[in-house]
Each structure stands twice: as C-alpha cells, then as structure tokens.
Write a structure and sequence with these properties.
0% strand; transmembrane; transmembrane helix; membrane; MFS transporter
Length: 414
C-alpha cells in the first residue's frame, strides 16, 4: 500500500464528511429558510423537489464530463460551489436569490455525489478490499455534526448566514487543500486501463445490466427519505409521543447508520458483499415492520434504530457493485465512472418518490400501513443480492486483488 493511496483515502473521506455537514445544514433548517424568504406551504414542495431533480441533471452531466475531465478535478471544484451555494441560501433576501442558490446547490451536489463515489469506487479497487462503507460513515458523521450545528443555530436564534458562514469559511479552504491528494482511477493521466485494457470512453455497460442495482438504490432511498421526512410525525401523531421525543428517531437513525457503516467494511471482508446486503435488507425490513406494529413510542424508536443499521450498507455497496460490474464487463478507462454516474441518478429518484408515496398512502389508508410499502420494497433487495457478487477474475479468484495500474495518479500529479 502506497502513501498516495493512503492520502487519497483520507482526503476523500474528508470530502464525504464535508458534504454530510453541508447537506444536513440545508435540510434541517428548511423551516427557517421558508420563514426568511416567505415561501408558502404550496410553493415549498416545488423548491424541495427542484434540488434532487437538478442534482440528477448534474450527475448525468458529470457522467459525460468524466470522459474528458478527471473525476478528482470535478470533485475539487464542485465541493466549494456546494458550500458557497449553501451560504447563498442563508444570505439572500429575495425569492429569486433562493431559487438561484438552490439551483446551483442542486447541480453542484449532483456533480459532487457522482465524482465522490467514482473516486471511492476506484480507490476500493486499488486497495483490493472493501473500504467504501468507511467513506459513507464519514458522510454520516458529517450529517450528525451538521444537524447539531443547525440545532445550535436554531436554539440561539442565529440568522441563517451567521450559522452558515463559519462552517463555509472552515470547510472551503480545507476541502481545497485536501483535494490535492485525491486519487483518480485507472486509465487517467496516461496510465493503462484495468488489466492493461486500452483507454476509451468506457460507456459499454448498458442500462439493462445496471437495472437491478438501480432498483436497489431507489428502494434504499425510498426507505431513507421515509425516515427523514416522516419519523417525527409518525412518532408524535401515530404513536402518541411528545413533540420533544418526536425529534429523537432521526438522530437515533443517523447514529446507528454511522455505527453500521463504521463496521460494515469488516463485515464485507469477512462474509462478502452478498451476505452483508442480504442481512442489511432483512434488518431494514424488520425495522419497518417494528415501526408499523409498534404499540408505543419507545418500540417505534427501536424500529428506527434497526432501520439505520439495515439501510446503511445498501447504498455504499450498490455504488461499489456498479463500479466492479462495469470494470468486469468493460475494461476501458471510465467504464466504472460512467456506471457510478448513471446509478447516482436513482439516489434522487428514490428521494423524490419516497416522501410523497408514504404521505399519499398515509392520508388515503393509514400511516402504519404506509410503512409496509417501503418494507416490501427494501425486502425486494434480497432478490437482487446476487448482483453484488464479484465475478471470478482472470486469475481464477472470486475477489478483487490490488493492481499497480489501479493506483492511478493523484490530482496533484503524484
């Protein structure tokens, strides 16, 4: 293992962490943003839906750009744009400013999410062992910190720009400095492609091949958005908790997500990705079942805890599987990046579908019954678990092995 890879791993983990902070600071202060700009309840869903839609556009564009531009460069410049757009959301005073800031935030987040996971997948391949869950654990840690900072800002009645400015002032220069050590995948900067394959655009992996992973990604984010958007209301309105206690389930979910991702790579190395994905899907489905049948708030809290432990492994492993599948089927440089960018769009599809789906079912049927729908969808992941299995490579093994060509060169020329 080289120092280049180690520095690349640490710097990318910080990138995930910074993105977790930024996203949490935005979504946890939505009521304050609505009050600042006078956004009506009817107009708010339009603004909220626009962000993931534009993020999907940003991810698609990134998938095309990486044919000519290294993912590390896209990540280097998209992360500061995300942070500055966040500051723009907090500093504006007109609805047009909010619309522009959120549009920039959404497009940049799409590029950021796609390029971050591209680098994560390529680093995991270079390491020859599972490290992808660790990056997403850093994201979860950032989300917890961001939510805590948002709580502090609301508690002390700070204006949005006062809450955001210190965070942006620290994270932007730190992210730019850390970006010097990003490590690109094989085939960049004149390096040979995977297993010495020639360079090329690497777009030979069709949508049909990726479809099972796209469905898993969508179902996972339907489950995640259900927790983030409905856990507080469910605990208070259905399970009869106090307003203060209703704020706890999402925090419990985030903490158990962090714990699960922190140890998840060890599970993948020990038991394999297929077993971990199956186990995560079953645990998550069990969490939804506990939430749906909970007699009171504390049992419901247990259900949300199980959801964090189960859902946390699905998204990182789906990205890793897409990159591995693309590399196995198309050795050209960029095949893995194109697959990750395409898969990343379904992150936003699940986010868009999840909350309205549960809300509509809750109003038309019951919120207990509505929780069974994401339960079934997440459980379907078990059917697609074989898509996460590494195919035997040309050396006859079933696991990836480190390759010198996979190290690539860092964005600073290392």
């Amino acid at each position: 293992m080289t120092d280049v890879l180690r520095r690349g791993r640490v710097s990318l983990a910080f990138g995930f962490f910074a993105q977790g902070v930024a996203f949490a600071l935005l979504v946890t202060r939505i009521p304050a943003i609505q009050d600042r700009y006078g956004v009506s309840d009817a107009l708010l869903p339009v603004f909220l839906a626009a962000v993931p839609i534009l993020a999907g556009v940003g991810s698609v564009v990134t998938g095309r750009l990486v044919r000519r531009v290294r993912p590390s460069r896209l990540l280097r410049w998209s992360q500061p744009v995300v942070l500055l757009a966040l500051l723009g959301v907090g500093a504006g005073d007109r609805l047009a400013v909010l619309a522009v800031a959120l549009a920039v935030f959404g497009l940049a987040v799409g590029a950021l999410d796609a390029s971050m996971n591209m680098l994560g997948v390529s680093l995991q391949r270079s390491y020859g062992r599972s490290i992808m869950l660790g990056f997403h654990a850093a994201y979860s840690l950032g989300g917890i910190l961001g939510a805590s900072l948002a709580w502090a800002g609301a508690h002390w009645d700070l204006t949005l720009w006062v809450s955001y400015l210190p965070v942006v002032a620290v994270l932007v220069p730190a992210a730019l400095v850390g970006s010097r050590w990003y490590v690109d995948g094989p085939g960049r900067d004149g390096e040979p492609g995977v297993e010495g394959a020639p360079k090329g655009e690497g777009v030979g992996v069709g949508f049909k091949v990726l479809l099972p992973l796209c469905l898993v990604m969508t179902f996972a984010y339907i489950g995640d958005s259900t927790v983030s958007n409905w856990s507080a209301k469910y605990l208070q309105d259905v399970l009869g908790s106090s307003e203060q206690l209703a704020t706890v389930p999402y925090n419990v979910y985030m903490v158990t997500t962090l714990v699960g991702r922190a140890v998840g790579d060890f599970g993948v190395r020990r038991f394999g990705a297929v077993a971990v994905v199956r186990g995560g899907a079953v645990v998550a489905a069990g969490g939804f079942a506990v939430v749906a049948g909970a007699p009171g708030a504390w049992v419901g809290m247990l259900g949300f805890m199980l959801l964090g432990l189960g859902l946390c492994v699905l998204v990182p492993q789906t990205f890793a599987a897409a990159g591995r599948l693309a590399a196995e089927r198309d050795g050209r440089a960029g095949a893995s990046d194109a697959a990750v960018a395409r898969l990343n769009v379904f992150n936003y599809v699940g986010f868009l579908v999840g909350s309205p789906l549960v809300g509509a079912l809750g109003d038309a049927w019951s919120y207990r019954g509505a929780m069974l729908v994401p339960m079934v969808l997440v459980l379907v992941t078990v059917v697609y678990a074989r898509s996460f299995e590494a195919q035997p490579d040309r050396y006859g093994g079933g696991h990836e092995r480190p390759r010198t060509a996979d190290v690539g060169r860092g964005s600073n020329g290392l």
